[in-house]
Amino acid sequence: MSWYAWGNAHSAQPPVVLFHGGSGSWTHWVHAILPLVDAGRYVVAADLPGFGQSDKPDRGGDADALSEPLAQGLANLFEGRPIHLVGFSFGGLSAGLMLAAEAERERRGEPRRVNAQRMVFVGAPAMGVVPERQFELKAWRHLETEAERDAIHKYNLGALMLAHPQNIEGLAFEIHKANMANDRGGRRRLAHTDILARSLPPVTSEVYAIYGQYDALYKAWIGQLEAAYRQAAPQFKGMQLIEGAGHWVQFEAPEAFNTALAQVLA
């Protein structure tokens, strides 16, 4: 796995660990890192297994295949030091499954390797409130020309990641295009289930949620999400909706998102 770090590793505050979304890399957090560092936090961002510059997991490509390498990586990096974990979309789902697996290890009498005091879910799927899939993405790898592939990348950005078409151009497009080229993960089906909601009951971390108002994963059902978290997570502390933002909320509304994240990490 590749991990990227900024700031003072000896800060008295818990490190902030960032997990990116599906078909992504640490660059999903490009607007969130420096504000955290400026606030005195030590920030560590992963390229999840199968994405960015990280090798694929030993077997499987969905979120459940990442629990072991993520837990082992965090154990190697922090050796039980308290951390604040922030997971975006697929990264939030992966983090939730990892924490549930660590709780199961502890139930069996094995040591817990990850000491996540706080878990912040950003645009995470699989909370069980949506009756059917809310979007469809288009395939692009079979296309022959770069122009054709670019057109599909922009369509997919608009269908899932960003609420406002004008935000698709420029940096968002360049990040998305580069990340798609490095996506070596398998098919990801768990995001369209309720597995995160079913995995949260044994998780003892404080749980927070930050979502964009127009998150394409939920659309009309976004209003039911807070109740789902409250029912599933014993230590749920609250949810914030960022007005005017879509799924990739930390990119589309960086100032509002960074303010919300600073509040829940304080």
TrEMBL record:
<dbReference type="GO" id="GO:0046464">
    <property type="term" value="P:acylglycerol catabolic process"/>
</dbReference>
<protein>
    <submittedName>
        <fullName>Alpha/beta hydrolase</fullName>
    </submittedName>
</protein>
<feature type="domain" description="AB hydrolase-1">
    <location>
        <begin position="16"/>
        <end position="258"/>
    </location>
</feature>
<dbReference type="GO" id="GO:0047372">
    <property type="term" value="F:monoacylglycerol lipase activity"/>
</dbReference>
<dbReference type="InterPro" id="IPR000639">
    <property type="entry name" value="Epox_hydrolase-like"/>
</dbReference>
<dbReference type="Pfam" id="PF12697">
    <property type="entry name" value="Abhydrolase_6"/>
</dbReference>
<dbReference type="InterPro" id="IPR050266">
    <property type="entry name" value="AB_hydrolase_sf"/>
</dbReference>
<dbReference type="InterPro" id="IPR000073">
    <property type="entry name" value="AB_hydrolase_1"/>
</dbReference>
<dbReference type="InterPro" id="IPR029058">
    <property type="entry name" value="AB_hydrolase_fold"/>
</dbReference>
<keyword id="KW-0378">Hydrolase</keyword>
<dbReference type="GO" id="GO:0016020">
    <property type="term" value="C:membrane"/>
</dbReference>
